[in-house]
Amino acid sequence: MSELEDFRGQNPAWCPGCGNLQILRSFKMAMVEMGIEPHELIIVSGIGQAGKFPHYTKCNTFNGLHGRTLPVSQAIRLVNHGMRVLAVAGDGDCYGEGGNHFLHALRRNLNITVFVHDNQVYGLTKGQASPTTDEGMVTGTQPFGVLYEPLNPVALAVSMDAGFVARGFSGNQEQLKELMRAALEHRGFSLLDILQPCVTYNKINTFQWYKQRCNPVGVSHDPSDREAAWRLALEFGDRIPTGIIYRSDRPTLEERLPEIANQEPLVKQPFSQGDVISELENFF
Amino acid sequence: MDYTIRIGGQAGQGLQTIGAVLAKLFTRAGFHVFTHQDYMSRIRGGHNYYQVRLSDRPVSSSRSLVDILVSLDKTTVEEHRDELNAGGMIVYDSETIRQKYEGENFLDVPSRQIAMDTAGNRLMENTVAVGAVLGMLGMSLEILEALLNEVFARKGHEVVEQNIAAASAGAQFARENCSQCAFSVPEPRSAEAGATPAGGGAPGRMLLDGTNAVGLGALLSGCRFYTAYPMTPSTGILNFMAAQSKKHSLVVEQAEDEIAAINMAIGASYAGVRSMTGTAGGGFALMVEGVSLAGMTETPVVIYVGQRPAPATGLPTRTEQADLLYVLHAAHGEFPKIIMAPGSPGQAFHLTGKAFDLAEKYQVPAFIISDQYLADSEWSLDGLDAEKIPYHDYRLRAGDLAKLDSYKRHAYTDSGVSPLAEPGASRHLVVTDSDEHDEEGHLIEDALTRRLMVEKRLLKKMPLIREEISPPLYYGAENPEVVVVGWGSTYGVIKEAVDIMGDSSSIAMLHFSEIFPFPDPEKSDFLEVLGKAKSTVCVENNATSQFAQLVRAETGFVFDRHLNKFDGRPFMLEELLDYLGDAGRNDV
After folding, report:
1. CA atoms within 13 A of residue B325's CA, in its CB half-sphere
2. A80 Cβ under 8 Å from any chain B Cβ
3. Number of domains in chain A
4. pLDDT at B1 over 80
5. Cα–Cα distance measured from residue B51 to residue B55, given in angstroms and rounded to the nearest whole number
6. B249 vs chain A: nearest CA distance in angstroms?
């Protein structure tokens, strides 16, 4: 069992009003409700404002490089499938710098969770377009406005038959906490894309902008219905559906890899040189 | 006795199988064997060869001149007919290559016809060719029959018998028709030669290439996680590890790219197991940010870099030693790094073990630099001393952690080495950061902590790591007039040249296999040996004498001469002897 106080970390250096603060609070509430203690979790983060997340709570932490949260978290899970592994990244981190890793993490379907703090802009580097920035937004480095189609991570994940795909909004803390719990409880790869305002650099997708559009999906939505999920995934305009968009029952990689399936986590398996020395004989 | 057999043909014709069977057979017969491969970057066609050298004394290099040229195609004859030794023979099948050659040194073996006649299967023409080579050498087929049994037992008794019949017919044809063959091979002495395999079994010699030597070294070192993106000439290690994975509880992951590979290797190590990644120079370019990450987070990781000629894609299947300074300087910032450059499969085995041990002990990235030549060359060995592979678990596990009141991942210590704990194994949190961090691992920006961390991570550890580095290998005459220096894969050819020239001249080799931290000149007399010699030569498979540059930077010593080869091919023994002969005449 744990209490909110157990998760008190460094004082956040985020801007007042930043969506990250609400995401952090929802996370701590989810941890306490799930009875997870700080040492029972490894958080892997990258670079960007989201990358600082684990320092502002309490947990085992690997704060690595920009874009690389998923390779690190997947490897941790492969060698220790007894641990809960959470990756925390921003939209630039997960969908830009780490885009290739994201594609292949969807394919592998290891039992890890990724929270993507998606504010549709680069914060740490001061306001450039991110992969999810709306078309037309003018920035210092996109003086003619963004000329590309924004990346739709939810649709991409559904198209790849991802294990669990959800979208949250930092301004709806109660739903966000429930989505975090569901993502962490899902057996397999779970993506939680969290829309959040950047109060300093995104003057278009503001808190009010999201608040007017984000709408929980109806109770009638069946997340195992891929066609319904696909339709919801493509909605991103006047109405943005939040909630569990898609869920599949694909087996996880840990269950399929014979060297670890139904066994102790690799890190707990003893090693003895005596067990491997016979391999030398193959070369006589 | 010192014979070279070159099997040439197109990719896909089975020349590798012929070469591999002959190499194994000669090794079993108790001879010393050295093989090397020369192949093009294509799946089918082209011109490739596999060269097998056998001798009754130790051999560790390839020769330019050939005694038996097995030509599976016309190109092989045309390319190599002028490279025959005195008494050398060219074996071919005029029906297969659709060309008849006249001349005393040609032996036309109708391999395809013999295969059809004896086994009713033209696919056995390569077995006929192996038999023909044995017939030419006057060797018995006893060991070959045993090998064919091992290789084809899975396919059934009939296939084994067909292969044996095909080989026998090939041998008989060669014995009856090769009136020019004057080869003389001593009786096999397998029963007396070599060591007993680790787990019992028949005594004999091992036949091992650099790739599998690194793989075995990693396995014996307790490597539990290997990840890579395939790239010649490093893919062999990925294959080796994948083949071991289920039996030995080893997770092997083919990553989506090299960036993922190194980050996965670091993640697995953070989680508590020994891990390794491997690539070639081009893939390593993608890994470089991860090397710096390992440096900052003090995460042990072993990185194999198989060199091949570059820049860019270069010559994908060929060899070069041009990535030494690149690997040495790769990654932003300052942190300790270890570089091993083995010169033989034996060294590759032991130095992989040492790389793992030092990486774990000092929590730093450790490199094994090889190249296509070493990776693909097989050496016959009397055995490997597995007891020389250290294994000590330096990490704090559940039992150790339960006794601690508090834990800080990056705690300041006298040695600079902080306790490395398995995350999740106790209530103590394991926190690390690619940002500069405090003792607990949380990100900071203050000047004092930054300075203390650099001192801990780099300045305190570096001298301790340097203490662990062995001096270069000295081989040859005392007080030599000529000193030949090499690093990595040139070991074998330099050693043999020194053996041969040592009879008539005062010559020695200094071979460096533990490259960085650079061996301490105070700990051995290599600088004095170099200083006293009349002539010093640095031999490198690159264009800019990278190792000589490193020696100069570390010690101030400047070589008299440089022998550089950068055509994508390894040094042949004759080439080195010719060069050193001249060096001797001019300078001694």
Report:
1. 15
2. yes
3. 1
4. yes
5. 13
6. 5
Instruction: Identify the CATH number of the domain in which residue A105 sits.
Output: 3.40.50.970
Give B396-404's long-range contacts (Cβ < 8 A, gap of 24+).
B396/B420, B396/B421, B396/B422, B396/B425, B397/B272, B397/B422, B397/B425, B398/B422, B398/B425, B398/B426, B401/B425, B401/B426, B401/B428, B402/B426, B404/B428
Cα-Cα-Cα-Cα torsion B208, B209, B210, B213, nearest 10 degrees, comes to: -30
Determine contact, residues B6/B80, Cβ cutoff 8 Å: yes
A25-76 residue pLDDT tens: 999 999 999 999 999 999 999 999 999 999 999 999 999 999 999 999 999 9
End-to-end, the C-alpha distance of chain A in Å comes to 57
Q: What residues does B91 pair with on adjacent strands?
A: B70, B107
Condensed to tens digits (0 to 9), the pLDDT of residues B430-447 reads: 999 999 999 999 999 999
pLDDT tens column, B464-504: 999 999 999 999 999 999 999 999 999 999 999 999 999 99
Note down the domain range covering A220: 4-283
Give me B428's structure tokens. 């103590």
> How far apart are the CA of B240 and the nearest CA of chain A, in angstroms?
11
**Residues 28-67 of chain A whose Cβ lies under 8 A from any Cβ of chain B:** 37-40, 42, 44, 47, 52, 54-55, 58-65, 67
Chains A & B: contacts with CB separation below 8 Å: 189
- How many C-beta atoms lie closer than 10 Å to residue A220's C-beta? 6
To the nearest whole percent, how much of chain A has pLDDT over 90? 98
Terminal alpha carbon distance of chain B: 31
Pick among B244, B256, B401 to test the A interface (most A CBs inside 10 A): B256
Residues 6+ apart with CB under 8 A from B177: B107, B109
**What whole-number distance in Å separates Cα of residue B79 and Cα of residue B82?**
8
A79 conformational bin, left if phi > 0, alpha if psi -120 to 50, beta if neither: alpha
> Which region among A11-15, B149-153, B367-371 has the lowest average model confidence (pLDDT)?
B149-153
Domains and CATH numbers, chain B: 2-177 (3.40.920.10), 208-388 (3.40.50.970), 398-468 (no CATH), 473-587 (3.40.50.920)
Contact in structure between B475 and B495 (CB atoms under 8 Å): yes
Q: What is the pLDDT of residue B41?
A: 86
Dihedral, CA of residue B379, residue B380, residue B383 and residue B389, to nearest 10: 0
Integer Cα distance of B127 and A280 in angstroms = 27
- Please tell me the pTM assigned to this model: 0.96
AA letter at A73: S
Is there a contact between B277 and A75 (Cβ–Cβ < 8 Å)?
no
Of B391, B346, B348, which is closest to residue B370 (Cα–Cα)?
B348
Looking at CA atoms only, how far is residue B15 from chain A in angstroms?
20
* Cα separation values, B579 from B298, B475, B538, Å: 45, 19, 12
Distance of CA B449 to the CA centre of its chain: 42
> Please, which residues bridge with residue B280 across strands?
B306
Could you give the angle at the alpha carbon of B351 between the alpha carbons of B349 and B356, nearest 5°? 100
For A161-191, the pLDDT digits (tens) are 999 999 999 999 999 999 999 999 999 999 9
Task: Determine the Cα angle at A126 with ends A121 and A132, to 5°.
Answer: 10
Pairwise CA distance, residues A81 & B339, whole Å: 32
Tokens 């050295």 label which residue? B34
Which residue bears the tokens 């059809």?
B116
- Taking CA B264 as the corner, what is the angle to CA B262 and CA B269, rounded to the nearest 5 degrees? 95
